[in-house]
Amino acid sequence: MAIRTYEQYKQSLKEMRPNVYKFGELVNDVTTHPATKRTVEGHGQIYKLQNDPEFRDLMTTHSNLVNEPVSRYLSIIQSSEDQIANSRMKRLMFQKTGTCTGGRCAGWTALNAMWATTFDMDADLGTDYHKRFVEWLKSAQRRDITISGALTDPKGDRTKAPHQQDDPDMNLRMIELRDNGIVVRGAKVMICGVAAANEIFILPGSAYREEDKAYSISFVVPKDIDGLTIVETRHINDDREVDEGSGWDVPVSEGGITQAYLFFEDVFVPMERVFMCGEWKYTMSTIMNFILPYRSAIGGCVAGQGDIKIGSALLTSRANGLADKVFSEKITQMAINNETTFAVGIAAAALGKKHRSGVWQPDPLLANVNKVHVATLPYETSRLAQDIAGGIGETGCMPSSTDFNDPKYGHLIQKYMKAAKSAESRVKAARMVEWSTAGAGVPGCMHGGGSPDGARMFVRKFYDSDKSVDMAKRLARIEEEMPDPGRKPKS
Amino acid sequence: MAIRTYEQYKQSLKEMRPNVYKFGELVNDVTTHPATKRTVEGHGQIYKLQNDPEFRDLMTTHSNLVNEPVSRYLSIIQSSEDQIANSRMKRLMFQKTGTCTGGRCAGWTALNAMWATTFDMDADLGTDYHKRFVEWLKSAQRRDITISGALTDPKGDRTKAPHQQDDPDMNLRMIELRDNGIVVRGAKVMICGVAAANEIFILPGSAYREEDKAYSISFVVPKDIDGLTIVETRHINDDREVDEGSGWDVPVSEGGITQAYLFFEDVFVPMERVFMCGEWKYTMSTIMNFILPYRSAIGGCVAGQGDIKIGSALLTSRANGLADKVFSEKITQMAINNETTFAVGIAAAALGKKHRSGVWQPDPLLANVNKVHVATLPYETSRLAQDIAGGIGETGCMPSSTDFNDPKYGHLIQKYMKAAKSAESRVKAARMVEWSTAGAGVPGCMHGGGSPDGARMFVRKFYDSDKSVDMAKRLARIEEEMPDPGRKPKS
Amino acid sequence: MAIRTYEQYKQSLKEMRPNVYKFGELVNDVTTHPATKRTVEGHGQIYKLQNDPEFRDLMTTHSNLVNEPVSRYLSIIQSSEDQIANSRMKRLMFQKTGTCTGGRCAGWTALNAMWATTFDMDADLGTDYHKRFVEWLKSAQRRDITISGALTDPKGDRTKAPHQQDDPDMNLRMIELRDNGIVVRGAKVMICGVAAANEIFILPGSAYREEDKAYSISFVVPKDIDGLTIVETRHINDDREVDEGSGWDVPVSEGGITQAYLFFEDVFVPMERVFMCGEWKYTMSTIMNFILPYRSAIGGCVAGQGDIKIGSALLTSRANGLADKVFSEKITQMAINNETTFAVGIAAAALGKKHRSGVWQPDPLLANVNKVHVATLPYETSRLAQDIAGGIGETGCMPSSTDFNDPKYGHLIQKYMKAAKSAESRVKAARMVEWSTAGAGVPGCMHGGGSPDGARMFVRKFYDSDKSVDMAKRLARIEEEMPDPGRKPKS
Amino acid sequence: MAIRTYEQYKQSLKEMRPNVYKFGELVNDVTTHPATKRTVEGHGQIYKLQNDPEFRDLMTTHSNLVNEPVSRYLSIIQSSEDQIANSRMKRLMFQKTGTCTGGRCAGWTALNAMWATTFDMDADLGTDYHKRFVEWLKSAQRRDITISGALTDPKGDRTKAPHQQDDPDMNLRMIELRDNGIVVRGAKVMICGVAAANEIFILPGSAYREEDKAYSISFVVPKDIDGLTIVETRHINDDREVDEGSGWDVPVSEGGITQAYLFFEDVFVPMERVFMCGEWKYTMSTIMNFILPYRSAIGGCVAGQGDIKIGSALLTSRANGLADKVFSEKITQMAINNETTFAVGIAAAALGKKHRSGVWQPDPLLANVNKVHVATLPYETSRLAQDIAGGIGETGCMPSSTDFNDPKYGHLIQKYMKAAKSAESRVKAARMVEWSTAGAGVPGCMHGGGSPDGARMFVRKFYDSDKSVDMAKRLARIEEEMPDPGRKPKS
Fold it and tell me: How far separated are the first and last CA of chain B, in Å rounded?
C-alpha cells in the first residue's frame, strides 16, 4: 500500500537517527522539537490530504511503476495535466500551511529531472543509471517517503570554478569511487524541509566543465546516513518558535519552514543510489530538467501564499470594523498578482513538450518568465496586505501574547486591542499578516530555485529576438542585411 | 470549397455597395482607397496564410457543420487546444501585419458567444435561435467570409440606462418587430475592421434589464445592407495613409487598422439573421460569453505586436551600430511583458470549461486578469522600444520621405541620416518604432473589448476572497465569526 | 548649558522610575536591559554627534528662546533651511543607527505643531496656551531632553467616532478638569522610542467634532509619571535582542527601534503642561501642523536607511567575490528610490510657507506625495538589496552565531561560509541585509505618521484639478460650461 | 527697453530670411505657415505673459548686465530661487501651450552653461571668451530675442568617435579657423523650436578627446545665417496641422512643437560669436554645465503637461456625464507623477551650489534622478488619461471634424457623439486627450536633453556607494577590509 497515513509518516521520522542541530543543540525528535515540529506538521498535512476524499485526486496519481496510487510528489510528470496538477497542489499546500512544504517539491522536481537525465545518459553512454533510478523510485513510491531535494553548494568565491577554489570542498564532490559506491565530501546549503524528510536527493548545483568532473554527481541518501550533519538555519522570528510561551505570536501550528546546511564528511553512498558520477556533460541538461518544472510550479506556491495574505489582511480589517469594499482596489491588485504567477506557470505547462524519456517539460521561456514574476509580485502583495492591515500588521506592532495575558497589565492590553471584534481575534489576525508578509512564513521565494537574474538571463536566451527582427524587417520592407553588430560573423 | 484565396476575398469586397466614408468622401473601392487598402491587405494575409502549407494547420480547422476545413475565424472553439490556437493565431497575425486585423476577431468571438447564448435560449425558452444560427454559420463557413463584430453603443449619458436617455437611439434598438424580421435604429461605434469585412455581427452592448428589452438584440448583416452608413474614424497619422506621397513614412503596407462608426437608419434585418430579439435576461450571459474568449486571446495580440516592437527597436539600434547586448535588460523586460499577456491567456484557455452547447470557455478570473495586463504592459513595452531606438524612434523625429528625396536638400538628409547602416534602412527602422509605439499601428488595446476598470471589477468578482479569509482564519485558529462588515446579513 | 553629553543623557534615563514592561517583565534600567538598550544607544548617538565638531552644525541650532545652541530636535523650524536640515539630520541618523530614532522625531514635530496651534488659539480665543508652551519649551531646551511624540489612539471600531464607541476610553480623553490640571484616561499605541525618552508629548489622534471635545487634548508628561504604564511591543526578531547569546545575529548594537503601548490610568497633568483642553475646532489644524513637517522629513529617514541597504548588499556581494558593477542597474534603482523620497521632502521644504506663529510649514501637496513614496519605494529597495545579497540575505538563511561557534560542528559552518572574504565578515554582512530589509531594523514607515491612503486622500485634496480642467478647456477652446457632474451646484 | 511685445516678436520673425523647409516646400513666413505658426504662437505667449502683470514677476528678472528687467529666458541663474523659478516658468508654459516651447529652454540653458565654461576657460587659459560672451548676452537681453539651443549631432556609427567616422562631418566641426571667425560644417539634429527662434546657440554634442578638437566648438548664429538650411521633421499628426481643414482635430492653436535638422554648409561665424574653438578639455564640463539646470527644470515641463492631461481627461469624463470622484485613484496617481518630477527638480535646485562664475548649479545626483523620472512617469500619466477618457481618447477614435460637419451624414455623427455635454465639446475634449498623450502635443521628453540611460549612468556615478558601504560596515562591526573586487587596487 503506497499511501501512508499521517501517523505512519510521523512514526517514520521518529525512528531516524537524530542528526539535526539548531542553536547548539541536537534535535532528538523532529516531530516534537519546537524548532522542527511545525514544518513536520505542515508536511504531515500532505499525508492527511492524500487520505481525504476531497483532495485525494489532486494529491495522488496512479503509478505505472508500481501499478497503484502513489503520492503525486513521488510521481513522474507525464502530461500538461500532470504539470498543471503540480501547480494546483502547491497552491493548495500553501493555502493549507500558509507557507512552503519544501521537503517535497525540490525532491519531486529532482527525481523528474534525473528521470530524464538518466534516460539520456543510458541512451547515449550505455550506462545503467536509469534502471537503478527506476528501482529506487519504485521503492520510494511503495514506502511513500518524503524526499527533500538539494542543489545549492556553498560555492566559495563566485568568480571561480569549483576546481579553482582555494578549498576544493566548496562544492560537493566525489572524493573516492569504489566498486560498490562513492564517497562524497562537501556541503549543500539552504536546503528546505530536510527536518521533515526521510531521504535527500542530491543534484549537481551548476553546469560544470570537464575540470569539474568530480563535482558532477547525483544521488539519494537517507537523511540520517552516517557522516551527514545537518544544521538548521535561523529564520525570521524563529526564537518565537522555540519559545513555548510565544502563544499566538507564532500564529500557525500546522506549517512552518526550515532550511538547513548539510555537511557531508566523507559519506559513502552505495552505487544503487548513485545516478550521476562524473558525467559533466549532463550537468547542464540536469539543471534545465530541474528548472523547467520547478519554475513553472512555483507560481502556484506564491499564489497560494498570496491567498493567505489576502485572507489575513481582510481578517484584520474586518476586526477593525471595516468593510471589504474599502479595499477593493488593493484586493484586486493582490488577486492579479496571485493569478499572474499561477497562470504563467499553467501556461508553461500547457505549452510544454514531452521529453523522450516520457517526462513532460514546461516551456522554458514561460517557466523563466514565471520565476521573474515570482521574485517580484509577492513583494507587492505583501506590501498591500500590510497596507490593508494597518500599523499592527505592518510590523506586528502589538505586545506579545505573554504580555497580553499578564496578570498585572494584561487587562489593559485586552481592553485596548478590542475593536469591532475581540482583542484576541484581532491580534491573531494581525499576527497572521505579520507572519505571512514579514515573519516566519515568508518562504524566500526570490532565490529559491535560482536567482531572478539567472531567470532573466534564460528569458533573454529563450526569447528569439532575431525572429522578431526578421518579422519587423519584412514589415518595414528593409532590404539591407541587418545582423547584430555584436555578433561575430560565422566564417 | 470553404477556403477562399486572397484574390477571391478582395474580389468579394469590390463587389459590395460602397457605403464607407472618410474625410467627407465616399470610398468607392475599399481594396484600393488609401484610407482602407492597408487594412484590407492585412486581412488579405489571412487568406494567403490559410493557403500556405506552413500556416494552414493553425489558420484552419475541420468543421463538423460543413464537414470540411474552414477558417479558424469561422469555427466554434471546442477545446482548450482550440482556444490556445486562437491566441497563437492572433499573435501570428500581429507579427504578420504589425497590428490588428480587427475585422475578424470580434466577429469570431461574437459568433462563439451567440452559439452558447442561442443554445441556452432555445433550451430554456423553446425558441429556435440556435437552429437559425447554425444555418447562417454553415453558410458563412462555406462562403469563407470576413465578419467584423460590433458591440459598443454610443451610450449617451453614462449615468443613465438606455431607456432613460433623452434620445432613445443612443443605444442600438429594435423599433419594429415584423413577422419576417426586425427594424433597427441607432449606431455602433469604434468598430474595428469593418472596411475589410463582408458581414457585421451585432451583439447587445451591455447587460440590460427589462425596461431595455428593445435594446436586447443580436443579428448579422451584410456590410452593405440598405440603411447602413459607415464613417471611418481618424487615427494617428492617418493623413499619411491617404497622402500617396508619404512613402515609407507609412512603413507598413500589408497591415493597418480602421475603426468605424456604423449608423443604422431603420435597417430591416430578416428573421433568419436575428439571434436575439428582446430576451434581455440573456444579455448578461452574452456579454460574458463574449468576454471570456476575447480577453483571453487578446494577450496573444499584444504579444505579437510586442514582438514587432522588439524587432523594430533592434533594427534601429543595429542601424546605429550598437550591439543587441547593450539592450539586454530592456529586451528581457519587453519579452517578459509579451510572454505574460500571452501566457495568462493560454492559462485561461487551459483552465477553461465546456459550456453545455459545446463551446469551450476560458477561465473568467484569468481572462480578466489578462485584460488588465493587456491594458498596461504594452505601454511599458512601447516605452522601452522608444528608449532603445533613441530620439528618432520616440516621436519619429526625422524629416519626411518627401524631404528625404527632395532634389534641393534631400542629399543632406541622406548624408546625415546614415549611421552603421544606410540612411534609408535607418529611417525605415525608426519609422517602424514610431508606427508601432506611437503611430498608426497602435491598436487601442486598452479599451478594445471593454475598459480595464471593467476587467478589474470582474477580477474582484471572480476572485473568491471569502475562501481566502476562511483559509487564513483556519490557519490562525481564530474561532470568532468574522463576516465582512460591509455585507448585509441574510435574514 | 543646553547641550548634554551622551553620559548625561544615559544618566537621566537611569534616574527615572521604571514603568516599561516587555515579555511580562519590568525593565529596571532601560540603558542596560536588552529589550531597550539598543534604542537607547541609537538615541545616545545623537548626544555624541551634537558634541562632535563634524556634525554639530547639523545637530544643533541657535535658540532665541534661551539664547544659546540647542539640539535641533528641540528647536522651532523657522525657514526652509531649517526644514531641509530636518531631512538631512534624519538621513544622517538612519545612516548612523541603521534605523529609526523615533524617540525624537515625532516629539520634535509635535512641539512644532503645537507652537503653531497654541499661537492660533491664543490669538483667536484669548487663551494663554502659547505662553505656557513657550515656558515649557525653554525648560526642555535647557534640560536637552529626549521627547517622544504620541498621537495614535487605539480607536476601537473604525466606523465610529470616539464618543460613539462602546468603551469611551478607546481614544485618550480628559475625564476631569481641575483648576490646576486635568485627569486623562485611555491609551496611545505604537509609540516609537518611548524607552529612550525623558518626556512624552501628546497630541489629539484625529480631527474631532464638538461631541468629541473631551478627546481634544494635548499635553506633555515625564515618561515616568504616576499612572502611566508602558508595554513594549514585539517586533521582528526581538527575541534575538533579549537573548544575550545571539551574537551578531543582531548585527547592530548602536541602534534599534521600540514601539510601545502607553496606558493612562487616570493620570493627572498639571495645567502648565496642558496645551489643548477641549478646543476641538483646533484638532484638524493640529493634525495638519504635524503632518506637514513630518511627512516631508520622513523622506530623509527612508533615504538614510536605503543607504544602509545599499551598503549592506554590496558588503555581501563583495564578500561573495563579486564586483559592484555586476549590480549597477540595481544600485542605480535603489539610489533613485532613496533620492526620490529625500528630494520630494526637500522640495516640500523649499516650497513651504511661514505660519503666522513663525513656524515654517512645508508644502502640503508635496509633503503628502512624499508620504506615498515613503510607503512604497523602500519596499522595492529592500527587494533589490535581497536580490543582490542572494539567498543568505533574503531571509538570513544561515546558522545562528551560536551554531557558528559550536565546538562540535562550528568549524564546518566556518569552513563553508567562507567565500572571497572570511566567514565572519560574510555572515555579518548578510545579517545586515536581513536586519535592514526583513528584520529588527525595519522601521514600519508605511503607517508611521499616518496611512498611505490618508496621504493619497490629501494629495487628491491639495491637487487643484479644477484649475487643470480650466487650463485644458482654454487650450481646447471649449466654450460650454463643464462642471464636475458629481458636485452639487451652489444655490 | 528689454521686454518686447508679442507683436514685436512676430514682426522680428517675419523679417528673417526664409530658410526653413518642410514637405519639400520653403516656409516663406513662419508666423503664418501652418507647419510653423502654432509653435510661433506658443512662443508668442511668452511675450504676452511677460507683459501681463499676473505673470511678469515669474517671466522676467532684473539683469545686472543691462540694469533693467529682462526675460528670464535670457538671464543668468544665480540662486536656488532663480532655478526654482525656472521650473515654475516651464510648468506654466506647458500649462499655457499644452506642450513644449522648445525654442527657449535649450537656448537659455546653453547660455548658462557657456557663462560658466567661458569663465573657466578665461580663468584657466587666459582667453577672452567670457568677455565676448557677456557682450553678446547684453545685446541679446536688450533685443529680447528667442534663442534655441542645439547640441545633438547626427553622430553616425555610435561605436566610433567623431574623427573615426567614415564621413568626418557626422559631428559638427570647424573646418577653417580665420582671424575674424570660423567656418563650420555638419549638422545638428532634432532641434526644438528653431522655427520660432531668432538665433541658435550651438554647443558641442558630447565630451571630446584631443583627436576631436575640431568638434569642440560653441557659437551663436542668427537663424537665417548664410549657409544654414533647416528642414523640419515630421511629428505625430503633423499632416493635420498643414491641412487647414482639420478644424478641431488639431485642438490647440496657441501651442505646438517643431523639431528641425540644421545643415551647416560651410557657415562662417564671426569671432565675437564664437565661445569655444578647440578647447576639447572643456567639453565635458560644458555638457555637465548644461545638463544640471536642464535636467532639473524638465521636471516642471512634464508636470505642466501632466496637468493638461488631467484636465483633458476630466473634461472628457465630465462630457460623458461621469463625476470626477469616479476617477479619484487615477487622478491622485497622475498628480503624484506630476508633482514628483516637479519636486525632484525643485530639490535639485535647493541643494545646488554656486559655480565660481556666479551661476547656480543644481545638485548633479538629483538632476539626473529627475531625468529618469521624466523619462518614465509621464508615460503612466498618459496611460491613465486615456484610461479615464475611454476609447475615444485612447486613440482619438472619432470621425474627423470634416466628417462631423459633412452635409450628408454629419448630423448622424453629431447625434451620436452627444452625451451629457454637446457633441462638439465632447469631441474637443477627447481630441485634447489624444493630442497630449498620443498626438502632436507629445514633447519627446524621453530623449530630450539626453537619454535615460545616460542619466542612469550619472546617477550611479554621483551616488557615493562606497560611503554607504562604509556606513553599513561600521554598523555591522565588520573589521576586515571590504574593497570592491572589481576595482583595481591603487599602487
Answer: 62
Contact C379 A376 (CB under 8 A): no
| ipTM associated with this complex | 0.97
Q: What is the pLDDT along chain D (491 residues), one digit of tens a residue?
A: 689 999 999 999 999 999 999 999 999 999 999 999 999 999 999 999 999 999 999 999 999 999 999 999 999 999 999 999 999 999 999 999 999 999 999 999 999 999 999 999 999 999 999 999 999 999 999 999 999 999 999 999 999 999 999 999 999 999 999 999 999 999 999 999 999 999 999 999 999 999 999 999 999 999 999 999 999 999 999 999 999 889 999 999 999 999 999 999 999 999 999 999 999 999 999 999 999 999 999 999 999 999 999 999 999 999 999 999 999 999 999 999 999 999 999 999 999 999 999 999 999 999 999 999 999 999 999 999 999 999 999 999 999 999 999 999 999 999 999 999 999 999 999 999 999 999 999 998 899 889 999 999 999 999 999 999 999 999 999 999 999 999 876 65
* Alpha carbon of D163: minimum distance to chain A alpha carbons (Å): 20
- pLDDT of residue C491 exceeding 60, the answer is no
End-to-end CA distance of chain A: 62
Alpha helices in D351-390 (DSSP H): 364-374, 377-389
Query: Measured between CB atoms, does A487 come within 8 Å of chain C?
Result: no
**Spatial distance between the Cα atoms of D453 and D462, rounded to a whole number of angstroms:** 14
Cβ contacts of D420 on chain C, cutoff 8 Å: 485
Cβ-defined contact of C485 to B329 (cutoff 8 Å): no
Q: What is the 3-state secondary structure (H, E, C) of chain A?
A: CCCCCHHHHHHHHHCCCCCEEECCEECCCCCCCCCCHHHHHHHHHHHHHHCCCCCHHHHEEEECCCCEEEEHHHCCCCCHHHHHHHHHHHHHHHHHHCCCCHHHHHHHHHHHHHHHHHHHHHHHHCCCHHHHHHHHHHHHHHHCCCEEEECCCCCCCCCCCHHHCCCHHHCCEEEEEECCEEEEEEEEEEEECHHHCCEEEECCCCCCCHHHHHHCEEEEEECCCCCEEEEECCCCCHHHHHCHHHHHHCCCCCCCCCEEEEEEEEEEEEHHHEEEECCHHHHHHHHHHHHHHHHHHHHHHHHHHHHHHHHHHHHHHHHCCCCHHHHHHHHHHHHHHHHHHHHHHHHHHHCCEECCCCCEECCHHHHHHHHHHHCCHHHHHHHHHHHHHCHHHHCCCCCCHHHHCCCCCHHHHHHHHCCCCCHHHHHHHHHHHHHHHHCCCCCCCCCCCCCHHHHHHHHHHHCCHHHHHHHHHHHCCCCCCCCCCCCCCCC
C491 touching chain B per CB within 8 A: no
Instruction: State whether residue B485 sits within 8 Å of chain C by CB.
Output: yes
Determine whether the interchain pair B331/A460 forms a contact, defined as Cβ–Cβ distance below 8 Å. yes
Chain A residues 202-231 within an 8 A CB cutoff of chain C: 229, 231
Which among A159, A329, A485 has the least Cβ separation from residue D329?
A329
CA distance D127 to chain C (A): 39
Judged by a CB distance cut-off of 8 A, whether residue A484 touches chain D is no
Is the CB of residue B66 less than 8 Å away from at least one CB of chain A? no
Indicate whether B223 pLDDT > 90. Answer: yes
SS3 content of chain D, % helix, strand, coil (to 5): 55, 15, 30
CB D146 within 8 A of CB D103: yes
Which residues in chain B are closer than 8 Å to A349, comparing Cβ atoms?
350
What distance in Å separates the CA atoms of residue C314 and residue C336, rounded to the nearest whole number? 16
pTM: 0.97
Q: Among B91, B332, B351, which would you mutate to test the A interface (most chain A Cβ atoms within 10 Å of its Cβ)?
A: B332
